[in-house]
Amino acid sequence: MYSMPSGRRKGKNDSKRLNLVPILDSVFILIFFLLLSASFLKIYEINSNVPIISTTPPPPSKKKPLGLTMEISPKKLIVKIGEAPQRTIKVFDFNETEESFPYEEIHSFMLDLKKKNQDEKTIVFEPNTEVEYDVIVKIMDAVRMIRKTDDAIFTKDKDGIDVKVEALFDDIIFGNITS
Questions:
Q1: Among 141, 130, 126, 137, CA closest to 174
Q2: Comparing C-alpha atoms, which of 109, 171, 173 is closest to residue 142?
Q3: 99 Cβ partners below 8 Å, 6+ apart?
Q4: pTM higher than the cut 0.70
Q5: Fold of 69-174
Q6: CB of 151 closer than 8 Å to CB of 139
Q7: 146 near 167, Cβ under 8 Å?
Q8: In the chain, what are the domain boundaries?
Q9: What is the pLDDT along the chain (179 residues), one digit of tens a residue?
């Protein structure tokens, strides 16, 4: 009794395996070049508050607030103080020859104003719709920061110790935001 050997042992194995090495090499090279060619942007954030709308009156304060406001138009920057009606204390005109506002003058004026009103931190910006974004940011920088080259400003804390003021008017509120 002789039987035929099974065909499974002698059959040719025609299945070939797919070589994935060249595909993986090209994918890794592609990822490497995409990472090298990507431009990494550093995104900066400028903190700003929105105006508070409330039906309750603010708590009574012994000191009257400064009510510092800047009306910004494409050709003029008007600095006002006080509550309604506000009074104008300074006007900065757009410099046609340099095609910019006098940011150094604005900074110096705000530094002098901070020396007179050391406890004040709030400023309200009211930019016109035609004012460019870059102009608003440069004005914000002139108003917010005390530079290393500026004269130091000191104020007394609750214990009577002199403390260096680190910022000018860093609490910026946009007063004419519409939704």
A1: 126
A2: 109
A3: none
A4: no
A5: Nucleotidyltransferase; domain 5 (3.30.420)
A6: no
A7: yes
A8: 69-174
A9: 566 666 566 556 666 788 889 999 999 999 988 888 877 777 776 666 666 666 677 667 666 777 888 998 888 999 998 877 888 898 998 887 777 888 889 889 989 988 888 888 888 888 888 888 888 888 888 888 888 888 888 888 888 888 888 888 888 888 776 54
